[in-house]
Amino acid sequence: MTILLVIIIIALLGITFWQMSKIFKLSKPVNSNDTQIADNKDNQTQGKLMLAFVVFLYLFMFYSFWEYSRFYLPEAASEHGTDYDQLMFISLGLIMFVQIITQGLLHWFSYKYKGEKNKKALFYADNDKLEFIWTIIPVIVLAGLIIYGLFSWNDIMNVEETEDTLVVEIYAYQFDWRARYAGEDKTLGKANVRFIEGVNQLGLDESDPYGKDDIIVNELHLPKGRPVLFKFRSQDVLHSAYFPFFRSQMNVVPGMITQFGFTPTTTTKEMRKSEYMVDKVENINEIRKERSKELVAEGEMELDNYEFDYYLLCNKICGASHYNMQMKIVVEEEEDYNEWIKKQQTFQELTAQN
Amino acid sequence: MSVALEHNAENHAHEHHDHKQTFIEKYIFSTDHKMISKQYLITGLIMGIVGIAMSILFRLQLAWPGESFWIFDALLGKFGKDGVMDPSIYLALVTIHGTIMVFFVLTAGLSGTFSNLLIPLQIGARDMASGFMNMISYWLFFISSVIMLSSLFVESGPASAGWTVYPPLSALPQAISGSGLGMTLWLVSMTFFIASSLLGSLNYIVTVLNLRTKGMSMTRLPLTVWAFFVTAIIGVVSFPVLLSAALLLLMDRSFGTSFFLSDIYIQGEVLAYQGGSPVLYEHLFWFLGHPEVYIVLLPALGITSEVIATNARKPIFGYRAMIASILAIAFLSTVVWGHHMFVSGMNPFLGSVFTFTTLLIAIPSAVKAFNYITTLWKGNLQMNPGMLFSIGLVSTFITGGLTGIILGDSTLDINVHDTYFVVAHFHLVMGVSALYGLFAGVYHWFPKMFGRMMNKNLGYVHFWITAIGSYGVFFPMHFIGMAGLPRRYYTNTAFPYFDDLANVNVLITVFAIITAAVQLVFLYNFIYSIFYGKKATQNPWESTTLEWTTPVKHIHGNWPGELPTVYRWSYDYSKRNKDDSDYVIPGQDYIPQNVPVQDNEEETMH
After folding, report:
1. Which residue of B412, B436, B568 to mutate against A (max A Cβ within 10 Å)?
2. pLDDT-flagged residues of chain B (< 70)
3. Contact B509/B499 with Cβ under 8 angstroms?
4. Which chain B residue has its CA at the smallest distance from A286's CA?
5. Which residues of A, range 161-190, sit inside 8 Å of B by Cβ?
6. Which of A71, A195, A225, B307 could bond to B483 as cystine, CB 3.0-4.6 Å?
7. Domain of life, per the record (chain B) (predicted)?
8. pTM of the predicted structure, to 2 decimals
9. In CATH, what is the architecture of B2-11+26-261+286-549?
10. Which domains does chain A have, with CATH numbers?
């Protein structure tokens, strides 16, 4: 299949060049007066092409929105995410409004005022009023956006830690994630890479009593509706903890602890049942089935059926396997979460075992 | 002072008229700005071929992940065993593609070429202030290109930590194999590059300030020269900071210092580094990295201003507003670097400040875009290939610039940071736009550089396929970015969630291949026209600026006799006489800068 495509592309390129050389031969001056400077005929043709191009551009943008806007992430699964999406849609709307008008004017003028013999251009060098208008309009619009954006930014980034807040450490290394819960004392034990030894993969300080009840897992479980504060730590290089479904991201920096907080609002089960996700998963499974057929024909393994799960992924280049550094996230009701966490091993139990 | 200098240069020029230059003096170690500009252009184009070829390789991998291609087998050696691309070479290709395109093609190839060609010619100078320094500048660039290309043949692979080479990944060979010798060569190459850029920039600044011919006040300069001048200033301010970042990184790598490294456990051992911060590196890098965007873009905008005005047969609209926005962009560009670091872990308050400054920079950019559009209004547009590329530039500059409003907003950046949305944004606004500027410049000043014309019909084919292709590549990319698809992923198949994006990636790759292929038409046109193109007349585009008053055949010192004197600004296109019966010069819709003010002409403020 691929080879066929490559052959087709090469063949098409061959034809292109053959045609090009023909065009070039034809374009060779018939009379030696050809100056290679655009003449009246060129201006006409190219001006019309400008108009055709903007029509193409409009259609292409329209097609992209029609066909691809369904790729936009599902409704945010975190509290601040709704706000985020709203700001995003306002900005996108504004951008597309300006885009359509300016591209239209640019190409329409290119068509309308295409060169003609004996036409005279207007000597028009300055207009302070116009300059003022199109300075002040962006100022006002941008001021609005800045203010809106900064209020949201403050809300998102200034997390207040309350009694209810669940503190979780996200620990990154090449090429996987771990999550550490603070346990019953609600305080994470001290840690440093210099303590890493054997099963103590996250370098917890064994002399720190706060660390004893910490729980280290490789699947992140979050209770619905409870604010979570993540503390990020990396053991080797820069990583970035990207939670697209929760509209949240923070770099993970070796040598320092970074943080980000959000409140999950949709459980995994609810998200799976949402109309968006049902359609999406169905579509993906169809694609996977098609692909599986090809794979089987080539004597390879079939692809698994896909079921949606939230995930955390690495979004800062971190090495050869950067593309596959992920952790499953499960958002569930408070009681399910409590049940799950009870079953997990504490750090003390882990070290005692070995 | 400047008058004295001119006289010396003049005598000098006369003395050497008959001097026969050897081949080496003329073509290799030349101190003539016109030859140096050609050297920059050709080196830049060669680097461009390498950079674009790399992008095609990794686009193939992205469209058909893990498939076997004979071309990988042929080009990638042990990294393309059985024609399947290795993940580490994927990252190396992305890294070197970025480095080459940003620095070697769009900084040196664009600004180096046209600053060298146009500054002396358009301000009426015999040559650069220091021809020797200019020559050194080119050869440092050449050495740096050779070192960068040689790093491709290192056994452990070239640098592969992304073009931003963030430590610790770039500092530790244990973390990725490209951070071995390949990374050392990258840093050495960049050191030469920065030295070259600084020598060049200082020369441009001094030349513009001191060697303007009689009557050429700053407010009569063509906008090209303004753009090159301000670009050079930004370069002098910000490139040294990149050098310091590179040197500190080199020390961390080779001498065990801890500027950027702390608390690292890798491959089963704790490293001794303590107390450094990768965020410090990010600050230093982006202190250059962001102004760099404008170092790339301003020359392209300068070229566009000139080409649009000439071909619209109209003065550029709002000349002073254009200068003001160049200056505003230059100033703001040095205080916005933090918008690359909203989620780097720096203080959120700092993020607020950078959001504010970043969205401010949209204002002068918007003014420029509106001024271009107004310049077209009621013009008499001559659709030469250079003009088409200039209009194309305004189009991609708007499309790419608008999405900057999303990325510059710290809140919105959170979820699209480092996704394909960013890739789409910066490729349109700085990659494609600056390349269009480069092409516009080449088509427009080719007659000045080589004394021949490029074929216009091939130019049209080149433009239209490129215009459609680049939107085809980068517009859909916004949507896969908003789907949360991270950049720099070797394959997206590890996440079944992204399976439905695969078709879009195929579409993008097909557009990319077509667009890259049509650049061969340009190359063919370029090389063929150098030798066999139609002979150019002295002023083929009927332009007002001084470079078109020099003879077609290049001479040392540019003007055979005395230097021209300037009486007006460079935008007197279609200016009418007092009683509005005809143009000021009857039958000619432009007044060259060296024509004195006529009796029947109204004086403008320039």
Report:
1. B412
2. 1-19, 605-606
3. no
4. B500
5. 173-174
6. A71
7. Bacteria
8. 0.93
9. Up-down Bundle (1.20)
10. 166-270+304-353 (2.60.40.420)
